From TrEMBL, chain A:
The lineage of its organism: Bacteria, Pseudomonadati, Pseudomonadota, Alphaproteobacteria, Hyphomicrobiales. It holds the Pfam family DAO. Its cofactor is FMN; FAD. Gene3D superfamilies: D-Amino Acid Oxidase, subunit A, domain 2, FAD/NAD(P)-binding domain. The keyword Cytoplasm applies. It comes from Mesorhizobium ciceri biovar biserrulae (strain HAMBI 2942 / LMG 23838 / WSM1271). This is Sarcosine oxidase subunit beta.
TrEMBL record, chain B:
It comes from the Bacteria. The lineage of its organism: Bacteria, Pseudomonadati, Pseudomonadota, Alphaproteobacteria, Hyphomicrobiales. This is Sarcosine oxidase subunit delta. One of its GO terms (biological process) is tetrahydrofolate metabolic process. GO terms for molecular function: sarcosine oxidase activity. Transmembrane segments: none annotated. InterPro entries: SoxD, SoxD_sf. It comes from Mesorhizobium ciceri. Pfam families: SoxD.
UniProtKB/TrEMBL annotation, chain C:
Residues 614-884 form the GCVT N-terminal domain. Gene3D superfamilies: 2Fe-2S iron-sulphur cluster binding domain, sarcosine oxidase, alpha subunit, N-terminal domain, BFD-like [2Fe-2S]-binding domain, FAD/NAD(P)-binding domain, Probable tRNA modification gtpase trme, domain 1. Keywords: Oxidoreductase. Belongs to the GcvT family. This is Sarcosine oxidase, alpha subunit family protein. Residues 905-989 form the Aminomethyltransferase C-terminal domain. One of its GO terms (molecular function) is sarcosine oxidase activity.
Amino acid sequence: MAEYSAFSLLANALKGNKDWKPAWRKPDPKASYDVIIIGGGGHGLATAYYLAKEHGITNVAVVEKGWLGSGNVGRNTTAVRSNYLLPANTRFYEHSMKLWENLSHELNYNVMFSQRGCLNLAHTPAQFDDYARRGNAMRHLGVDAELMTKTEIKRLIPALDISDSARFPVVGGLMQRRAGTARHDAVAWGYARGADRRGVDIIENCEVTGFLRDGDRISGVTTSRGDIRARKVAVAVAGSTGRVMQMAGIETMPIESHVLQAFVTESLKPFIDTVVTFGMGHFYMSQSDKGGLIYGGDIDGYNSYAQRGNLPVVDEVMSEMLALFPGLARVRMLRSWGGVCDMSMDGSPIITAGPLPGMYLNCGWCYGGFKATPASGWCFAWTIAKDQPHDLNAPFTLDRFHRGLVIDDKGQGANPRLH
Amino acid sequence: MLITCPYCGPRDVIEFTYQGDGNRERPDPASQNFEAWNAYVYDRLNPAGDHNEIWQHSGGCRAHLKVVRNTLTHEISSVAFARGDHGSAARHKAEDKA
Amino acid sequence: MSPRRADTGGRIDRLKTIRFTFDGTAYTGHAGDTLASALLAKGVTLYGRSFKYHRPRGLLTAGVEEPNALVTVLKGEVREPNIPATMVEIHDGLVAISQNRFPSLAWDINAVNQLGGKILSAGFYYKTFMGPVFGPLKGTRFWMFCEHFIRRAAGLGSAGSAKDPARYERMNAFCDVLVVGSGPAGLMATKAAADQGARVMLADLEPHFGGSANWSEETIDGAPAADWARRTVAQLAGRDNVRLLPRTTVWGYYDNNTLAALERVSDHKEHPGKGEPRHRYWAIRAKSVVLATGAFERPLIFPGNDRPGVMLAHAAERYANEFGVLPGERIALFTNNDSAYRAAVALKKAGAAVVAIADVRPELSPEMRKLAAEAEAEIFAGHAVVATEGGKALSGLKLQRFDLANGALIGDARSIHADCLLMSGGWSPTIHLASQAGAKAEWNAARQAFLPPKPTQSWIGAGAFTGSFSTAEAIAEGRAAGLAAAGGQSTPSMLPTVEAVPGDPDPAPVFEIRAKGKSFVDFQHDVTAEDVRLAHREGFVSVEHLKRYTTLGMATDQGKSSNVPGLAIMAEALGKPIPEVGTTRFRPPFAPVSIGSLAAERFGDLKPERLTPMHDWHLANGATMYSAGLWYRPMIYGLSGETVEQAYVREAKATRESAGIVDVSTLGKIAVQGPDAAAFLDRVYTNMFSTLAVGKARYGLMLREDGLAFDDGTTWRLGEQDFLMTTTTANAGKVMQHLEYFLDVIWPELKVHVTSVTDEWAGAAIGGPKARQILAACVTGTSVDNATLPFMGIVRGEISGVPVMICRLSFSGEMAFEVYSGAGHGTHVWKALVEAGKPFGLVTYGLEALGTMRIEKGHVTGAEIDGRTTARDLHLDWMLSKKKPFIGSAMMDREGLIASDRLELVGLIALDNRPLNGGAHIVEEVDEANPHDSIGHITACCYSPALGRHIALALVEGGKARHGTRAHVSDPLRNRFGPVEIVSNHFFDPDGSRMHG
């Protein structure tokens, strides 16, 4: 398949763009594979890509119930960062960041990763110290972080209200300059194309309806397009984890599926150059290359698979937005949407072999899954290929909850709606 | 989303706090069955369809409610006091009727 | 009158002249005009530039779906970008400017993008800009370099940073029936429901009710439809069970029939009325909803269909009939259906020459031929428009014979001179709200449109929304819907009679004319038919991939006119029927909504402020306030010229030397009462409370279910069955919820009632060697000596005539007392205490001094009980009773919670005598250049006047075992490194002799 480049664009344009080929094939499922990955979202596709690239395992099928990238990889607010508090998270997300930094080249697909920075605003001296703790934790793991003063922040974001009369005046902030945003759909498409080019079958409109078993061992899946056997079956279905695990006979999981809403304004000329988060509520915002302000807040706070939320969160998010940017009152919200988040009991993910023989599980991404995509795929591929976790995902086991080894960045305990 | 509190009537979801899976059973306080404790604290049913949930009417009477709600459509098919017969609110209601 | 403005007709008031500016040029219009109609009347053809190619664009529509003519409305420094000119009602002093052009709308330098042509095809971004793999632009740098310019070229209008002075408000409304849309169907529904006595709300996004009746020129009950509508509205307006909401866009359909609407209350006024909001946000809970939202006309896709002067047919009809404005003088039409013929007649009547009607259908009904004759238009049956001519305004077009069976173009093209081309590609019902409510649209092959499916919530459709495009059907369905929504029975009374031009509602299934040149599907985003086919070639064939890859339907109009043609082109490329390509789910909002309206009263007032009863006193007495959650608390009471550190050091020192007083009213306070109160507290706290004597208090610790520390505080036993629990300020709400959950869900058999009394009590903590003397000087009705008021004892008495409750407990480590009075008397009691303390050197102290003294004592707060620490980590394991189970007891000994490498609470003393920083980390070996191997972090720090050292509390791996050893602070963020000694967290008076007295 042809490489993408400025040259290929020009050459194709001269031929009226008639010769472009599909970005990935649309194969029918084979009877069996070495590995089946359930879920054609970002994580599933990245896993397939790294299985092929890093481990030479190419006899792989990614089965997707709908269209490729129809889950959270196509519904998020596109922020990429590694500014976590706890070392297990920071190490993992920093590995992701390093993969992001070379991803467009690696995939020969411009995922538009733009390191425009992520700024967490602090509104009290105590919160500023909290952010300092986090920033220092990052620095001790070799991750970039810096504190910013109010004046520096105003220079970076002129439209931000930093007045002392604000309800929650800005006192400073924690900045990760290497953080940024990426074009979410392109990540799914880039991984799909990359995996496809290495021989992976990506099978869309193929819904898994059950698991095949060989004794205790999972040995394949039944789907809307027939049975498919495999030596290893990997589950990467985010918000649908509960549903898929139920098919395997596992009724309860340390997961609740919640709906998270996101919003975009009409397209505007450049307004804000960085990702910014509010410290006295839950609000984050960035601006897309097209000019829309992309923003969101808390999950709605109840179990839902409906991919749509309700008004209280809408009102809360807009109120917090105007508390930071009072000039936006006349700007208009163009579109809102909902995604289903697999909220875990400590706010951190699960990437592990098991819980059944022949099965591998990747879930619990809460609403941080997009930025994790490269490292999640990379670590999951390692775990599947070697039947043991890489050091980076070793802490993210399924049994850590029961053993008291939780990785609770927010300190909220077993209360998913608060993570 | 509206939840019909048996005490206060139909109210917007903003008045309520979600307390999660209502199927969980707390082991006896003195129990040393760690599996049961762990299951109670960490493991949740997460069905796509009807779900038994606990909600608190935190912006109203503050009673906890057992709600059966469909997680695909958000339709609510039943609401009752979590206290059941122990509920003083339920008792009041009954007395009102009598 | 201008040449484009008819002398009569329409609902504008020709006697009222309105003055406004557009791009700095002064214009006049009339009352009733939109910005679009007023400019069109002046012969303006150019309204905007497209997003990508910056092509000149005119008006496509007359309504909310306008993709081209977007303007920014200026009110002083405040900007409102991206408003369709079709939705701006002009008023004197209106200032509007065009967008996305430089230097001017007529001469836009970025129009050079058009030369990029085929290179800038759909998805081109993904295929390039990856940059070199080495050198200074490797990694993400090359893309970010390019992106810098791309971002500046992208975007439409500019947002401002000046705060909007306008007010926004929210209304919660309840009704039996909400009718959305006020065309004939909506009006009939409203009337029918109102006649049943139902409480009805009618909302329409236009300023005038009536919908198509305002421009259809049909006759209802013998009168012009517009008159019938006016009369009906006037009747409805007089009824007190009907609320009419003009200029109100119902934009969201949420669960349980909750609908969100935006009312533009005063945008159309030069000076809003006193107290009038700009926008009002309606949250409407309707028992039943009638969706009578009509339909959007679709463009036809052919080369040059975006040239200014090419417009939707019904839009021209609206401009002529509603505003008396002609969009051109020589008008041609291009259609695949009958509805355009009525427009031809209307424009003819309004004074334009209709030069040609091109219809893709070879066979036309006699009725259509008659209408064409009436419009004196030449008919070109079986023809299609294959090109348009002109620069920034249309000058002509080319027609060619068209084969309906296979889409082929036959024979030579023929030129027609025209300054306006009207097109009609059929109609798409406005099913957005139904789709938001969860229903999936269903394709109707005859109508060539998606129709609403079976409702998933309580709504009933009527009129064009259901695909019934005639007014007679709309009236019948409207009445039936209104009746059904109100729960009424059908009435035998006559329906209004309609005289309308005839017409077949089904269009020919033609969406695109394939000829040479750019044919636009999404006008604003410059998505062409070729882009759709390119997406197909590259495998982006599902409707969502199509949208995302080409940006089709993602513009400010959200595909209102482009979605169906785009799908049709993809379906043809795939060789599949349209429904197999699918339709995307519509998402809120139906049309863009101001963010100000959604924040409503919370714009400028995000969260309530919680103030203690003594707040005003603190302000009047020099306190600098600190915001803590929603509360405001004194940080210091600074003297002039004092720094914060000087102030808290002075306050803390004075407290330890004589006495200090601090406002502790923010502490959470919960009354725990009932026969089982003591047993309940035994389960809630890790330590025993049932053994606590009446009139005594005890410090208690709570765990979460998972065994980690949750909250701490003292609880006072006021009576056998009556406890007053205090919590930390931050956790007051959470603890309350925690207690209620257990009482309601887990242990309903316990007879206990909990009540939050935080706001009922004012609290003052007074401590220091002279604290008891001060109390003795002002408390009456009780002694405060050691026998009457021992450590942790409680007495009741009076201060200055006010009953108070005094507990002898200490956070500062001094002999100290908490004095509680009714909140209303808080300031009175506080003043009396301060007055009584004067002879003893009493100081008021704030949070900084409070924090300093607690660090010296090694007490924990939220910085240490951070949701990740255990009782053992904080050396509070002495409080874990072994005699009883309590919340968290079963879980607190799991392997991860007793591991030896956990972070434990320690004290630190700075050995370099320099200030420490909160959030600094601790390392064994300093490496300033490359910090690594953190073993913990500082949770709180201060200069300790008692020790004369800079000290800190910290959580450090293996904590206690490191006592007496040296480590270093490592704070690369603030470049502070230096040696510290790790010590016990109990720095000062570890055996508590001072507080025990």
